[in-house]
Amino acid sequence: MVALAVTYPRWYTLVHRGVSVMVRVLSGSAAGTILCLGKFDALHRGHQALLQAAAELGPPSMLHLSGMAEVLGWEPRPPLVCPGERPAILGKWSEVLGKEICVLRIAFATVRTLCADDFLAFLHKDLQVGGVVVGEDFRFGHQRRGDVAQLQSWAEKHGLPVQVVPMLQEEVPGRGLIPISSSCIRRALEQGEVDLAAHLLGRAYRITGRIVRGDGRGRELGFPTANVADVANMLPANGVYAAQAVLADGTSWWAAVNIGYLPSIAQQRQLSVEAHLLDYSGGDIYDQAMRLDFHAHLRAERRFSSLEALRQQIAIDCQRVREFGNGTRP
């Protein structure tokens, strides 16, 4: 019997469009559920397709292996989804499916050494799954020696349904077919292509952080900014973006967001994320949480010849954000 380590709360209760939905974390087995296998790091449209296929067969569940990077010695990298945002995303998916999504969290170290046959036995005897859904490139077991054919043969022997979901692809004008994968989403963000990332995710790419005091340079230029620190997930490439800022009180504001080093202000500055909220005239929001949903890359960060030239460009950036928010700019 493999020991299961659960660190999430057992239940998430969420309200989406006025409907209460629940995402449950299992403490022991996935008995009777249709288990989706994958990394589920980005929670993108491909992962949603797996859960949709599972929901058509029975109660959907997903296996989340924690600590994989640490065990395998991979270089640490920020996640694509802030951990605090995962319950809300899964809650929305649960509401769309009309079924509760169960999430089984297991430490990767507990299953790493299992050969393919032992991993399948683990699914059958320990988790007592009612079926399995995987992507077409799924591999399992020690050294990834198990494949879809072996999984299908095992399932047939035990009378369990298995569904293999082809990899989804997105037709992008001028780019052809783009696979919907976490790797493609990371590459898009590295290039500042937040619109492409949104297509692959099925939602705007979001970062979360805490508003801290800056040096007041934005206010001096006539464009006060909310400086975002403690960002929990991957930042898009340096540059200026059109985004929507969601404050702790739930209000949403279109914002011009700069990610970078502000080369026109000083030579040696730390990387910063600064958002100018259009038309915001509210009170003190320091030390509050803020979410930024990215919609479009406006331009690269660059050094200007004077602060006046910078001020004029920021005004242009804000107008472009306003046009984007009004739907007058594609």
**CATH class bucket of the largest domain:** Alpha Beta
Q: Could you give the order of the helices and strands?
A: EEEHEHHEHEHEEEHHEHEEEEEH
Per the principal axes of the C-alpha atoms, what is the gross shape?
Answer: elongated
Radius of gyration: 22 Å
* Annotated CATH topology of the largest domain: Rossmann fold
Helix content: 25-40%
Number of strands: 15
Q: Which ranges are low-confidence, i.e. pLDDT below 50, for 5 or more consecutive residues? A: 1-23
**CATH homology superfamily name of the largest domain:** HUPs
* Largest sheet: number of strands, sense, barrel closure: 7 strands, mixed
What class do helices, strands and sheet pairing give?
alpha/beta
Distance separating the two termini: 55 Å
- Give the domain tally: 3
The mean pLDDT is: 87
Q: Taking strands numbered 1, 2, ... along the chain, how are they ordered across the largest sheet?
A: 1-2-5-4-3-6-7
CATH-level-2 architecture of the largest domain: 3-Layer(aba) Sandwich
How much strand? Answer: 25-35%
Number of helices: 9
